[in-house]
Design goal:
Layout: H1 2-47, H2 54-72, H3 90-103, H4 109-128, H5 131-138, H6 141-152, H7 159-178, H8 189-193, H9 200-235, H10 242-270, E1 289-291, E2 294-295, H11 296-318, H12 321-342, H13 349-367, H14 371-374, H15 396-409
Antiparallel strand pairs: 1-2
Helix pairs in contact: 1-11, 1-12, 2-10, 2-11, 4-9, 4-10, 5-7, 6-7, 6-9, 6-12, 7-12, 7-13, 10-11, 11-12, 12-13
Length: about 425
């Protein structure tokens, strides 16, 4: 009996350790994916000067996620694929699964449409406010995700966890501000305060435009936090597997980005009257088109984008939406380190200190007590007398024992 109970304890410990390993591994992979994805996009746009349509890249990434999810999705246990339903056989069962996933995909239309709205808001806000201000406000996604998890999922954080989230937000905001291309003070104060060289009407219009840009960014980060909590709620409700939810989201995303890509190609054909300046200089090997106008770097961006969408779902499934957002924020530290080590960027002491603060903050959040652990559990009255016996049958000795146990549980006079 002792050996069997020891085996059960060891088995449960290995199961917990395995789940913790999967959780940590997914978060580390998500952090690495975000870092490589950011570096490759900057290399593609900033160094190689590639002009590939953003909608085409996003469409290719979602199509890749669609194919992978369709290949790996499993048939739900409650789905009937018996021969009398006309879905017998391997391919019949597979098509029945796809049809069932498509029929129940309406909840995943909400994230797909929300992501489209967020992208539209971010692009419009970038036209109205400074890029550094936009990036700094965007780092508040960690806070909005924590608030959304509390409102949507009812998940409370302890005070120590809230302090860690706030410290991480401050750290990544410092990194974003220090790495701005416009210098140490990049906010255009003339937009806020106005100058005497411009009429008062133009200053008021510029101020309104700036406030509109700030409002768009705040709405975008609020939607980001809410949709993360919404996605986690539907991932963990037990109705669908992670692959099924990814397949549903990819279906809607492919439809949306496909329409956007067709609209952009139609506009490009209408504006094709102007001559295109072809650069005769030889292109680098990584910029050589291999599939249409997609170069090797663009294909790598597509692979990382599609893989990142799958990793986000697994990170939310095995961890939570807040941990996913914190891992994405921590990727900024990895990007800074990679730029210093491999791209020749000058090291900044303030950025290094903020990066160290971000890493320590992640450890503090992991070690912080949960919200339920902060409240002391109510004292349990334990006694050795039979619970089912009537109180009239209790002798003097058992009565004294009950009084002693109750007085020990409640020391107040």
């Amino acid at each position: 009996e002792f050996r069997f109970s020891s085996f059960l304890h060891a088995h449960s410990f290995l199961g917990v350790a395995s789940m913790l390993g999967v959780k940590l591994g997914v978060l580390v992979l998500l952090c690495a994916q975000n870092s490589l994805y950011t570096l490759l996009r900057r290399y593609s746009r900033g160094v190689l000067r590639e002009q590939v349509s953003t909608s085409a890249v996003l469409l290719a990434a979602e199509a890749l996620k669609l194919v992978v999810s369709a290949a790996l999705v499993e048939k739900p246990s409650y789905l009937d694929t018996s021969p009398h339903n006309g879905s017998s056989g391997r391919f019949g069962s597979r098509f029945a699964t796809w049809a069932h996933v498509a029929k129940t995909s309406l909840p995943m239309a909400v994230p797909a449409i929300t992501y489209l709205i967020m992208n539209t808001l971010s692009f419009k806000a970038m036209e109205l406010i400074d890029a550094t201000v936009f990036a700094m406000i965007a780092q508040l996604k960690t806070l909005t995700t924590a608030l959304a998890c509390w409102i949507v999922l009812g998940r409370r954080l302890s005070m120590a966890q809230w302090r860690a989230v706030l410290a991480l937000t401050i750290a990544v905001s410092i990194i974003t501000f220090q790495r701005s291309a416009a210098g140490r003070v990049s906010c255009d104060m003339t937009v806020l305060a106005g100058t005497s060289a411009q009429p008062e009407g133009r200053n008021s219009q510029a101020l309104l435009s700036y406030m509109a840009g700030l409002s768009m960014v705040m709405l975008e980060i609020s939607l980001s936090g809410w949709i993360s909590a919404y996605f986690e709620k539907h991932l963990k409700n037990g109705g669908m597997s992670v692959w099924a939810r990814n397949l549903q989201l990819a279906m809607w995303s492919v439809a949306i980005y496909g329409m956007m890509a067709m609209m952009q190609s139609f506009v490009a054909e209408e504006a094709h009257d102007e001559p295109i300046d072809q650069n005769s200089a030889p292109k680098p090997l990584l910029a050589t088109p291999i599939i249409g106008n997609f170069s090797i770097v663009t294909c790598m961006v597509v692979l990382l984008g599609g893989g990142g969408g799958l990793l986000v779902a697994f990170a939310i499934k095995y961890a939570d939406a807040l941990m996913k957002t914190m891992a994405t924020a921590a990727a900024l530290v990895a990007v800074v380190a990679a730029e210093v080590l491999f791209l020749g960027a000058p090291p900044d002491p303030i950025v290094c200190l903020a990066g160290a603060l971000a890493i320590v903050t992640l450890q503090i959040y992991g070690d912080a007590p949960k919200a339920d652990a902060e409240r002391p559990a109510p004292a349990k009255v334990m006694s050795s007398f039979p619970i089912g016996r009537p109180s009239t049958d209790m002798n003097d000795e058992e009565g004294k024992q009950l009084i002693r146990v109750v007085s020990e549980a409640d020391p107040s006079p």
